[in-house]
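The freezer alarm interrupted the setup, so I double-checked each line after restarting. Inputs confirmed:
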Amino acid sequence: MFSRILIANRGEIALRIIRAARELGVETVCVYSEADREGPWLEFADRTICIGPAPSSESYLRIDRIISAAEIANVDAIHPGYGFLAENAHFAEVCRDCHIEFIGPSPEAMGLLGDKLSCRQMATRTRTPIFPGSKDPIKSQDDAVKLASEIGYPVIVKASAGGGGRGMRIAHNEAALRSGISAASKEAEAAFGNGAVYLEKFLEDARHVEIQVLGDKRGNVLQLFDRDCTSQRRHQKLVEEAPAPGVDPKKREAVAKSAAEMIRRAGYAGAATVEFLMDRDQNFYMLEVNTRVQVEHPVTEMVTGIDIVKETIRIAAGEPLPLKQREVTLRGHSIECRINAEDPDKGFIPQPGLITEFSPPGGPGVRLDTHVRAGYRIPSAYDSLIGKLIVHGADREEAIARMRGALKEFKIAPIKTTIPLHRRLMDERQFTDADFDIHYIERLLKSDNSDVAQKV
Amino acid sequence: MFSRILIANRGEIALRIIRAARELGVETVCVYSEADREGPWLEFADRTICIGPAPSSESYLRIDRIISAAEIANVDAIHPGYGFLAENAHFAEVCRDCHIEFIGPSPEAMGLLGDKLSCRQMATRTRTPIFPGSKDPIKSQDDAVKLASEIGYPVIVKASAGGGGRGMRIAHNEAALRSGISAASKEAEAAFGNGAVYLEKFLEDARHVEIQVLGDKRGNVLQLFDRDCTSQRRHQKLVEEAPAPGVDPKKREAVAKSAAEMIRRAGYAGAATVEFLMDRDQNFYMLEVNTRVQVEHPVTEMVTGIDIVKETIRIAAGEPLPLKQREVTLRGHSIECRINAEDPDKGFIPQPGLITEFSPPGGPGVRLDTHVRAGYRIPSAYDSLIGKLIVHGADREEAIARMRGALKEFKIAPIKTTIPLHRRLMDERQFTDADFDIHYIERLLKSDNSDVAQKV
Amino acid sequence: MLDIRKLKELVRLMVANDLTELDLRDSEEQVTLRRHRLNHAPPLDAGPALEAEAPSPRDTAAARTAASATIAASGLTKIASPMVGTFYAAASPDGAPFVTAGSVVEPDTVVCLVEAMKIFNEIKAECSGTVEKVLVKNGDAIEFGEPLFLIRPK
Amino acid sequence: MLDIRKLKELVRLMVANDLTELDLRDSEEQVTLRRHRLNHAPPLDAGPALEAEAPSPRDTAAARTAASATIAASGLTKIASPMVGTFYAAASPDGAPFVTAGSVVEPDTVVCLVEAMKIFNEIKAECSGTVEKVLVKNGDAIEFGEPLFLIRPK
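Predicted 3D structure, all chains:
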């Protein structure tokens, strides 16, 4: 096992990694920007190193500064968390060159699965279900139009290097497709430095279901079942749960198995998530593979009893997976609500500022992953995620009832958060019946004549 | 199911019952004393009724006032929690007379198992192991001396109606036995209104292991495995865990089975705990039966996934137990540390007063059951328990590591608590190896030349 | 003359001890500092049931505390319920109320009945004066310590 | 003369906005209110690396903040590290340091090397003056923004 690791991240995931490392007896070094000088998570690190000013381009995204910090702190490995450099194959390469273990997949496996097009090719080999669409990047608008007429509209143009909704365009006809290709390509070029886009059949009315996989350095893989992340707003997940409600066990099993096999064949070591859309007939179509720990990993931890973040560290240190597939069992149901510092009344604009009141919920089956507390000032430079409220119950009904109660108890003031929206969602029939698709929250919000706060 | 219940308790257990009822869709009415007017748990009740001034003899122990409150609030049932009226058979009878369901066993079953002597007699019939000792109350000191010489010293004199360490005397010789009988009898008369005492063999060097049982009104029982509560100070439990470490599975199974059978034969509906001492050879000897939910019930909830407090409500409402015995499985290991507002440097005197800083721990496998928060003033009139920190891990080692981390994160100021003592215990070899007996904490504290705070 | 160091010390004292009010007076000057906290209303005294500032029920605590301040100023006294139960203004459903606004009471005057566990308990005034106001209605459920009547003392 | 209402308003402002200091002056009087918070030290400005009040490392933040106050008063300037790495006072292990206390520096004067990722970066004074003190030792690991030298400006 490592004796010391550096955490190249901030906020709740930095604290999550500190907690995991501490239980493994591994020391932690946290890098931070000047805006995070007072970050409460830094208190729990064994050492902290300031690496730059507030903008992440000058701190959390600065490979040179992070590597320098790793060298002066003499760490064995770097955990990237999610976001920032987590899916940056170049960073993983630099770590390798500097003889620092990158806690995540090899640059090769990351590149293979992180690029959406090569990932589609991998999926084809392991019979992981994918959408009909391009095998290669779009070379000309005419080729794309021809393919689209074969697979039928609507289609979606996606950035090969993309993620999180950027570099995507939906087209219902030829004109929209032609303009969408150039727009998506430009956006992708700007966001990821790679303008390659491709075409897929687009599903209007689908659920988002994903499979959590772990692979070790000895060629073993485990699938930790599925999660449902259908509750989204503008492609940003708001509520996640495990297992995905109402999925036929045989379909679940087949998809999870093929996803695990894809990860195994990619020679992948670490945590990976294979994301799918699922239509009303429970047909699955792969969206992409996330080559890192996910924000929503806790719901899988709750139902499997496996500490995913600890496993990422153990795997990077060369340890084998602790269980066989048949030993991984599901218990109960888990739901996570993302608590964002955003004002739902004002189009979900981020709400940086001082938290003066912070009263967390508690009791059986309630878990809170947060880096904030009363007296903490949310900086404006970063993501608005300030916490994840996770519940576990014997079944989905109990989990929903528990989440309702926990949301009732949870008080954060004076900043606005997504808590009132979550309170409302837990009472929405579409959510409670799992009779939903990835656009249902947007439809709900649009159908309001007034704001959410008045309704809850 | 009931539509509304009254909670005849305060603090963390009142909040625990509110949470359970809320998830069942049952309204809650909380009675409170004037000293608890600002109790944070009252915010989460559907209705609150003041029943008297601070002394519990004038509020939480006043049967007439609680019943009046139940009548004006028109509740279906009363949950007594633990302590106060929870093991008062007369209260259970009054409830029945008033056609209010008492959430707990019938007065008859409570009387049968609550009285230690009749409980010993029940145990004999179901082959639940007991200490050699009296079959009936001690009639004369001479009879007791004769019996003691048969079973051998040391012996313990216990109040038949007792509990929690009161009305007990240990005797290593005849003189101590004679004086102990009259002292214990007087104490028992004063504390419980019943001076009957009896004699048992006394074990110097034992662990405290107990079996959690649930019985419904249809004659079904479930045993939810065992807990270890060896970490005590002056007969007050400080740390509890499930399952009891290192117990031979066959012995565990046999004792749990006999305990469940005893509860079944008593016609018992509700949660019961059968307490045992266990010697170095893992022989069990029954201590007593607690006819109510225990402070330490959460550790069993964590490893079985069963919500014990919800089950007490369901059982009282006439519902059958939700599982068969074979469906109850253990997952992982759970530990609870009792957070008391006490000053370990000053002989653990209670520390009432204002809490200005309250920073709870969080993350995976961490549960906090507490009714306090920053800004809460701990009243001096009641118990010093201000919270229970519970962790769950894949095994005992992970649970201990997790508890260490959670205790490190937990900050309460300016009042003194048992947190520093727990931090120390989690590093004590006797605890980590489970190589302990019920006196080990007292020995540790005695062996200190200085106070605990300096050592941690 | 206001001593700055003293003021600073008082402010530190205020913050350290979580005080909600500080009065500072000298010959020329008076400074009042209040500091309201977010999570915690000032604790009410847990006094006997019958007094000018008797604790009021929780759900309307703020309103009633405000009211009782006026009361204290106006010299009125409360008769508070010594038990939990149901308030009855009269001995029988059709009977006249024991007292109404304007009634004169002595310490032994029965002012109402409170029913608890099927038993009707006579509540006595335990003070002398004139009933200014009846605060609860016939049949109301009442808490321990809940104010029932306002009395203007003799 | 001290205006009480104004003072009160300022205190409310202080609490509402979580201010840490308030100065109030009139012709006769000056009042300074400080409010230290439990969990949260006052945020430091995230300015450029080279300035009089450059951010100091977290673990000794309190001590160094105190120091920098003195510095500001005494008119000294800091040279802070623009990168994370290892501090070297001289170009070679046996060489003379670039600067020592008393050395005169111009904006282009190289004052030290900071090694980051095997690359030795020359750090320039970027100000004119005399080196008052060297704050770190040869071979020390340094953070971004960590003060390296105190300079008395010309």
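Quick read of the result. The longest helix of chain C spans residues 4-17.
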